[in-house]
Structures are given as structure tokens and as C-alpha cells.
Design a protein that fits this description.
With 177 residues, the protein is mainly α. It is built from eight helices and no strands. The longest helix is centred in the N-terminal third of the chain and has 19 residues. The chain is globular.
Length: 177
Amino acid sequence: MRTICCALALIAAALLAGGTVSAENKYVGVKKCAMCHKSAATGAVYAVWEKSAHAKAFETLKGKAADDIAKKKGLTTAAAESPECLKCHVTGGGAAPGVDKSEGVTCEACHGAASAFLMLHNKKDDASKAKAKEAGLILPDNSGKACETCHNKQSPTFKGFNIKEMWAKIEHKLPKK
């Protein structure tokens, strides 16, 4: 009986804590984003991503040139397997559950892991939009600071970063309603 009471107390404590501490958002993958963001009505942002270097970021790690760069950096594993390379070439660093490495740098690399805001962010009412942001949706701020976590001098192929020039390559605006 005492064991049952202790177990129930632990369960109750976990449920109460769960109400005050949100679970960590999980990555859902680019296919979930594409379900809504393929159409012209949503700006065809998936098509923009699909044609971008971000979509091919993991593929660039599979070639000889990438392996040569990894060796020069002192890495002992192939570029496509090195955490030092994967941290910028794959959403979630290549180790996060729910991430398909072959997708490269996806929507969630910039907008946050989407499990908690996926069903909120596309609603038209302001309350849902606010809840999506509270749930982890990251909106662009045009400063380029988020981009510079990967596009910086620590990258062995860095040649400078101009947010206006780079944004023009991946700009994806939602249509005005």
C-alpha cells in the first residue's frame, strides 16, 4: 500500500511539474512544414528552401573537398560524420531526434523546433500567433545575428557575411492577407 501511495505521489508531482515546465520542442522535419508551405497561398516558401544552398548543406559534406577541409582542421572523421561540420550543415547538429540529415538546414534551423507551435503559427488570430511565439516560433529580425551562428569566421570557408545579400538568396515572404 505504501508503495502505491508513493507511486501516486510521484505521478502527481510529475503532472504538476509538467504544467509549469514545458517539454522541450522536438524537430518535426521539413516535410511537415512543406504540407502547408508549398502553395502559392503561403508564399511557396518550401520551393525557395528546396532550391537553396541550405537544402543541400549536408550534401556538401559528402565530397572530397569537404573531407580535405576536415582533415586540415584536424578532424579524424569524414566531414559528413563530424559534429564540428554537422552543427552548421544539418538542423539540430545532426544528432537531434526527428531530423533527417539529408534535408540539410531546414526551416526549423531558423524558426525553431516546431512540435509545439506547428498547429498554432498558421492561425489568423493574434492570440494563436502569440501562443506560437511563446511555444518557440522564432521570427526573423533582419539583423543576421541568428545566421551568424554558422556564417562566421569559425567556418573554414567563410568569406564574409552580408545579411542583405544573403537574405536575397533565401527570402521567403508570406503573402499579405
